[in-house]
Structure formats: C-alpha cells, structure tokens
Amino acid sequence: MIGTLLLPFIYLSIIWNQLPAMITSHYELSGAPDRSMPKGTLALLMGVLSVMIYLLLRFLPRIDPKARLQSANYDKLRFVITLAFAAIVGWMWYMADHHEQPQNSFHALFAIIGVMLAVAIPVMYSYIYFREEKAHPIH
Q1: Distance CA 92, CA 79 (A)
Q2: What does the buried/exposed string (b/e) look like for 109-120 if buried means 16 or more CB atoms within 10 Å of the residue's CB?
Q3: Cα angle at 21 between 20 and 25, to 5 degrees?
Q4: Per the count of CB atoms within 10 A, which of 60, 93, 102, 116 is most buried?
Q5: Class of residue 23 by CB neighbours under 10 A (exposed 0-12, middle 13-18, buried 19+)
Q6: Nearest to residue 60, comparing CAs of 81, 46, 89, 85?
Q7: How many structural domains does the chain have?
Q8: CA separation (Å) from 63 to 50, 77, 124?
Q9: What is the pLDDT of residue 38?
Q10: What DSSP string runs through the chain?
C-alpha cells in the first residue's frame, strides 16, 4: 500500500528538473486553469495528503466501534482508493511535465475515477450485502 502511494513521488523525483516552477493545481469545469502553486509547495501538499489518506485508511478499522471494517473487502476497498489517489497524483505530475492542455486529458482523469468507482461500488455492495446476510440469515 505504501509503495503504491510512493510511485508518483518516485516519478516526480525523476522529472523534477523538467517541471516548470509553477504548476497548475486546479481547473475550472470548462478545463481552464484557475489556480497554480510552486512545484515544491504542490509536492509537499501531495505528500501530506498521501500520508493522511494512508493513515486514515490504515487506522480507521481500529476506531470503528462496531468493528465493521475488519474484512478482506475493506482491504480491497482501501487498495482501490489508494491506487486511485496515486494514479491521480501521477496524472497530475505527468500533465505538468508534458505541458498538456487539460481539455485534452480530462478523459484520463475521468477514466481513473470511473475504474475506481467500478471496482469500489461492487466491493462496498458485497460487503454490505454479506454483512446483512450474516446478521439475518435466511432459513
């Protein structure tokens, strides 16, 4: 899991010198950039967010009072969320390195989110369905 979150930062270390000093960090719905920040600040922000996501997903089962998050399905869901976040961060570094126009590459971002949802929703459904079945077995 940690390795998955580190992959975009390994890529970042390879392309660091090729990146512009300012990187677009937010786009309007139309695809026009509306916010940018220095690459160091953005890298630090993405690093902090990565650590926070990892810690939240790692320790959430320990603070769950009903112990619902103690299953293999939660591990799958945790991996999918981690992988999607790493893919989005990697996509962002790739965009900055290749100076791509966001209008031309939003399809990749939507594909990442779509795949995450396509995997996460059935995992969540099966978790809820089987949880209910165990609580109220049909005889």
Answers
A1: 20
A2: beebeeebeebb
A3: 85
A4: 93
A5: buried
A6: 81
A7: 1
A8: 20, 17, 19
A9: 93
A10: -HHHHHHHHHHHHHHGGGS-SEEEEEE-TTS-EEEEEEHHHHHHHHHHHHHHHHHHHHHHHHH-TT-TT-SHHHHHHHHHHHHHHHHHHHHHHHHHHHT--HHHHHHHHHHHHHHHHHHHHHHHHHHHHHHHHHHS---
Structural domain of 47: 2-135
User: Does the CA dihedral 65-1-114-73 come out positive or negative?
Assistant: negative
User: What was the pLDDT predicted at 91?
Assistant: 82
pLDDT digits 0-9 by tens, 15-49: 899 988 988 877 777 767 788 889 999 899 988 98
Q: Compute CA distances 100 → 37, 41, 107, whole Å.
A: 17, 21, 12
Taking phi over 0 as left and psi of -120 to 50 as alpha, with beta for the rest, 51 belongs to alpha
Cβ atoms 11, 87 nearer than 8 A = no
Which residues sit opposite 26 in a β-bridge? 35
Alpha carbon distance 128, 139 (integer Å) = 19
